[in-house]
Design goal:
Blueprint (H helix, E strand, L loop, with lengths): L6 H18 L5 H14 L5 H5 L5 H18 L2 H10 L5 H16 L4 H19 L7 H11 L8 H18 L14 H7 L8 H5 L10 H22 L4 H7 L6 E7 L21 E8 L2 E3 L13 E6 L1 H8 L4 E3 L9 H5 L2 E7 L10 H4 L1 H5 L2 E6 L19 E6 L3 H5 L5 E6 L11 H21 L11 H14 L5 H7 L2 H19 L2 H12 L4 H18 L2 H19 L4 H12 L9 H10 L3 H26 L5
Antiparallel strand pairs: 1-4, 1-5, 1-7, 2-3, 2-4, 6-8, 6-9, 7-8
Helix pairs in contact: 1-2, 1-22, 2-22, 4-9, 4-20, 4-21, 5-7, 6-7, 6-8, 6-12, 7-8, 7-27, 8-12, 8-27, 9-25, 9-26, 12-28, 19-20, 22-25, 23-25, 24-25, 24-26, 25-26, 26-28
């Protein structure tokens, strides 16, 4: 336990140390440093254990975790595959693809966490680039930026605003309580914390308390939407001039690593029925070639672009694994190699795609795929066959299996563990990203998401001060949506667990604790008063300083941490200057959510860095104009919408 007069210095020192270490150790995990900082201030006695751990029970963490699970449900049911097909299916030019990506990404990220949106949209964009022989470096940074600017259109679009709103709710309820005092922001009933801070009880005016109300569902959009529109138009019309063109990535996208032969059966419910090969998008698939169509014994080859697809057609392709997996995501298009192939969505979603290399001792050597009876022997269905150095052109059922053939199999979850050391195979491995789709659950998943969004919008209408059975809580709304996803079998419990990012949970909890330490120790007040004096009686200048501080710190550290740490500071700034805290809270919410200049400032920027082959300077070239455009719009609109007077 350190002496009380050292508490402000310890809180500031630990926070600065976390920021510096994150810059010096770029490869280190941010959650480790924030948790270490939280433990340090707790052991020093700056905050007690209850305050330190209260961040883990924060409602914003619950909402973020639930929304990530809901996003996984949309992916698992194929809703996102359908969206990608509708989004870029007919786009031919880079400009057209950029415009469509912008419209959809901004709209979707307003209602889903932008990290999840980029995880969904990036593969769609890469697939389109592969198909049109365009470098993904021309399109992936905009995918991240579209999601970022869309996230500030509503209060649930980004984890930053969820955290800020959670803290607003806690502070508003604390100050409304009878005999409310200026305690820690996350520990409303800690008298011990008040005494340690050495600050006197101070009941604020009703106007000041009213300015601390949680943000309405669309309130942030009054600034966020103009920023999104301006930023989106800039990316669409001028982004192409500032983005790099890494031509080497085009060659990588075109690599045909293992070329398989696969036969797909068109079932009556397939959405491709009645379409020509060209209209169905099967003519220029990346790394995949349609060899022939078997229609009730009649072989159609070569396949013409205007040939129409009929129910019962067997489409024979040769190509790479990734595109074969994409074919299986089309409802009603299933592998025809095994008559017993599972087409029931529920059973099929419980199976996995696996690669296996046949050994010389395998009992299926010398037999055709049709004769091998793989399902009876291994409880697995042969989906496709690859033979090194040889392009197979036979119908897949007639291929005579040889040692060294690589088989693409649909298997049970335990196939890899069971046959990894089997003498029948040289190698057995799972194919990443080949999880089954529950297409039959797509409509329920979409209904759940729409209902949740409507619910969240209604919470802002009824307000947070008149709760009825928790119906006005965004966290409860998101949790209900996640539970409905599981109950309606849109998502398994295990998949929901995997979708929750623990590192994000730890960063938020740690940063909330450090923010409480800064506030409770009196450090925020000590910083706020000189800051107010330095700006004189000009609240607009103070707003600019706060915005730029949040923007700069966000480019250096994670956005959620910056928002959590600056929240108590802007409250103290408003108190010291006699201003309403609302414009300053909106400023840090926007500034901490819009990170464009560095890849480390926002998780979505890091997500596209590798696939796009980007360098840090690429983000500066296009991100700096984006930051200036959005900052200018935000700083012009914020004081016009939210007055400085309390």
């Amino acid at each position: 336990m350190a002496p009380e007069f050292l508490h402000p210095w310890i809180a500031v020192g630990v926070t600065v140390a976390v920021f510096v270490l994150l810059q010096l150790r770029r490869g280190a995990a941010a959650d480790f440093f924030f948790l270490a900082g939280l433990v340090a201030v707790t052991l020093a006695g700056v905050i007690d254990s209850r305050t330190a751990l209260s961040g883990f029970a924060n409602s914003s963490i619950v909402a973020i975790a639930a929304l990530m699970g809901i996003s996984a449900g949309l992916r698992h049911t194929g809703c996102l595959d359908w969206l990608g097909h509708r989004l870029l299916g007919g786009s031919k030019s880079e400009f057209g693809a950029m415009a469509r990506l912008g419209a959809i990404s901004i709209g979707v990220s307003a209602f889903l966490l932008n990290t999840a949106v980029v995880a969904m949209m990036a593969p769609i964009a890469i697939e389109w680039c592969r198909r049109h022989r365009i470098s993904p470096s021309r399109i992936l940074i905009p995918v991240s930026y579209f999601a970022i600017i869309g996230g500030v259109c509503t209060v649930i679009g980004t984890s930053t605003t969820l955290v800020v709103n959670g803290k607003l709710k806690a502070e508003y309820e604390r100050r409304q309580a009878p005999g409310a005092v200026r305690a820690t922001l996350d520990q409303p009933d800690s008298d011990e914390g008040i005494e340690r801070g050495g600050r006197q009880s101070q009941q604020k005016s009703p106007a000041f308390i009213e300015a601390l109300r949680p943000m309405g569902f669309l309130e942030l959009g009054m600034v966020g939407l103009p920023c999104a529109v301006a930023g989106g138009l800039f990316l669409v019309f001028f982004g192409g001039r500032l983005l790099p063109n890494r031509t080497d990535l085009v060659e990588k996208l075109g690599e045909e690593r293992r070329e398989y032969l696969v036969e797909m059966l068109v079932r009556p419910e397939c959405r491709l029925l009645g379409k020509s090969i060209e209209a169905a998008g099967l003519r220029h698939l990346p790394g995949l070639f349609l060899i022939e169509i078997d229609r009730a014994g009649e072989i159609i080859t070569p396949v013409a672009p205007d040939d129409v697809i009929h129910a019962g057609d067997r489409l024979v392709f040769t190509g790479v694994v990734s595109t074969i997996l994409d074919l299986q995501k089309i409802p009603g298009l299933v592998p025809a190699a095994d008559r017993a192939y599972e087409i029931h969505p529920r059973r099929r979603s419980q199976r996995r795609i696996t690669e296996a290399v046949l050994s010389r001792s395998s009992p299926v050597i010398g037999r055709t795929v049709r004769q091998a009876r793989f399902r009876r022997r291994y409880s697995a269905a042969i989906v496709a066959v690859h033979r090194n150095g040889e392009r197979l052109t036979n119908k897949i059922g007639d291929i005579e299996l040889q040692a060294g053939d690589t088989l693409l199999l649909q298997t049970r979850d335990d196939f890899v563990a069971t046959y990894r050391n089997s003498p029948d195979f040289y190698l057995v491995s799972s194919v990443e990203g080949a999880d089954g789709r529950r297409h039959d659950r797509a409509i329920p998943a979409a209904i759940i998401v729409v209902a949740m969004v409507v619910w969240l919008m209604l919470t802002s209408v009824f307000g947070a001060d008149r709760p009825f059975l928790g119906l006005t809580s965004p966290a409860i709304a998101a949790l209900t949506g996640l539970l409905m996803m599981i109950l309606w079998r849109c998502l398994t419990i295990s998949a929901a667990r995997e979708a929750i990012p623990l590192n994000v949970v730890f960063v938020i909890a740690g940063s909330l604790g450090l923010g409480a330490a800064l506030d409770e120790s009196g450090a925020t007040a000590a910083v706020a008063e000189p800051l107010v004096r330095a700006t004189g009686d000009n609240p607009y200048l103070l707003l600019i300083v706060v915005y730029l501080l949040a923007m700069l710190l966000t480019e250096l550290v994670t956005n959620v941490a910056v928002a959590a740490l600056l929240f108590p500071l802007v409250i103290a700034v408003a108190e010291a200057g006699g201003y309403s805290p609302r414009p300053f809270i909106i400023a840090i919410s926007i500034a901490a959510s819009l990170s464009f200049i560095t890849p480390i400032g926002y998780q979505t920027n890091l997500m596209v860095m590798g696939p796009g082959g980007y360098r840090p300077l690429d983000y500066v070239k296009i991100g700096l104009p984006m930051a200036l455009i959005t900052a200018t719009i935000a700083l012009l609109l914020i004081p016009r919408i939210w007055a400085f007077a309390p």
